[in-house]
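hey team, just a heads up i'm posting the complex here instead of the shared drive bc the drive is being weird again. everything in one block, sequence lines first with there labels, then the predicted structure for the whole assembly after. its two chains so it's a bit long, scroll down
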Amino acid sequence: MSTTTPRVVTVIGAGTIGLGWVTLFLAHGHRVRVNSTRPDVEPSVREAVRLLAPGLPGAHPDPAELLERLEVVPDLERAVDGADVVQENTPENLELKQELFARLGKAAAPHTLLLSSTSTLLPEALGARMADPSRVLVGHPFNPPHVVPLVEVVAAAHTDPAALQSTVDFYRGSGKVPIVLRKPIAAFVANRLQSALLQESIHLVREGVVTVEELDAVVTNSIGLRWATMGPFQSFHLGGGLGGLRKWLTTLGAGLQKGWEGLGRPVLDEDTIELLLAQADDAFGAHRYDELVARRDRLQRTVLEALRDAETS
Amino acid sequence: MSTTTPRVVTVIGAGTIGLGWVTLFLAHGHRVRVNSTRPDVEPSVREAVRLLAPGLPGAHPDPAELLERLEVVPDLERAVDGADVVQENTPENLELKQELFARLGKAAAPHTLLLSSTSTLLPEALGARMADPSRVLVGHPFNPPHVVPLVEVVAAAHTDPAALQSTVDFYRGSGKVPIVLRKPIAAFVANRLQSALLQESIHLVREGVVTVEELDAVVTNSIGLRWATMGPFQSFHLGGGLGGLRKWLTTLGAGLQKGWEGLGRPVLDEDTIELLLAQADDAFGAHRYDELVARRDRLQRTVLEALRDAETS
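-- predicted structure starts here --
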């Protein structure tokens, strides 16, 4: 399954994101060391790999075989000694992450890539207490990392171009689709887009146009389906008939801009929050959280596999 | 395949949307009359049904069998005489549509549902010149109607509740997922959400964070995949771990609102349009328009079929 050289990869943190990375890296042939402060880390990680491995899109690896390449290493310095890649998944606390990266900078070999799953912090900040932060990058996955292909890669002005290239190669070889941001921006790309759509979704529910459940049904039955197969620009290109994007932008651009001015600017006051929560409870409150998560991941894997089969058939 | 009583359905207009409706309605057992001003309408419609029928999700009807229930009726009054449902797909011109609906109101039997595919006009406006507009509704499909499940149903204050219910039943029985808007709003729901995401997409390209091609890849490999399987609210509920939507909205609501304030407000000036067009040309300019459309529809059908299989297995 691997298309890259097997590496020694240290995963720091054994929460949802960390465990997804562990499973993915193992499935792509890497040796994985897990470093975590959880007291029950060894049995937890082994159990998670057994649970998550069957969910890997397109792959049905034997969990027992994967677990042979897994090692739990509670000591941080020992965990990164000789590692090719470190992927850290600690809480979004700048102080703690800066401290962690300072230790990593001292403990890891000079070629080791130091990657962070952070969704909010930039590599400049992460590496601020390091003598040489040139191999610190953000590699922000979408949850769960073993299913959803995207990883947003963010470098800094001080990043070594070779480290950036190695990071991209490493992720691609591990089955991910890495997209390198050309400049840093708060919240990166996917979460900003998600936030823009959520803002209008909340506006429409607040205005009483649709309920939470109806809004979700609109999306899965139209734009969600479409955006699983092609992005918004290509969709837009094909949405207006012959003439495509050029026709849209040159003859209908004013209407597009006017539409933006009419979009909602909801306020998340107490009434809005209670309205959303009551409707969300009606929509999916009767389902257990872990069952909804399992369903999401199963359906996402289903879509990915179907699309890959269709593209290669 | 049909779960509804077969009806006589008159489709007015034989462009992309009209032809998609024709194929869908035929596949669900209805008798379909096509009314169009196109001179070549008879051979065009028959050719379109042959081309589109194999693309119907989950169905593989024999086009020859479908065509037995198709009739081209160039005279409008004759086309709607005895019809149970009219679905009109004429250009987005209020004057012309008002004139059309006035004629339909006189020509159609009192029980006939008068439905418009319009993406911009409200039923009040469409029926403004009719003596009795109580059975005029918007039934706005997503392109192409024979593949994408959503139809947004918009009623007016004067709409007969029985006509609304019949409309919903008719669409549901024809394989669609009808969502009734609880109040009218400009551009309806799906296109407003699409517009919100497109606004931020254009901002990110304009700012040089990603290219058109990279933006599209981010979406298909993350939020598009996700929103094909569940809507934004349920995604959000599952995105923050245990505690779900309540935790997000009550403890992180301020951050969410702050994120909205940082979203882009791009201007569609000439430089922006040229930048988008040049990058779009790099991304998909080498592909023929009709091939991209065919690929989109094939992949959308693939996703729908895979999800339906997964949900029923």
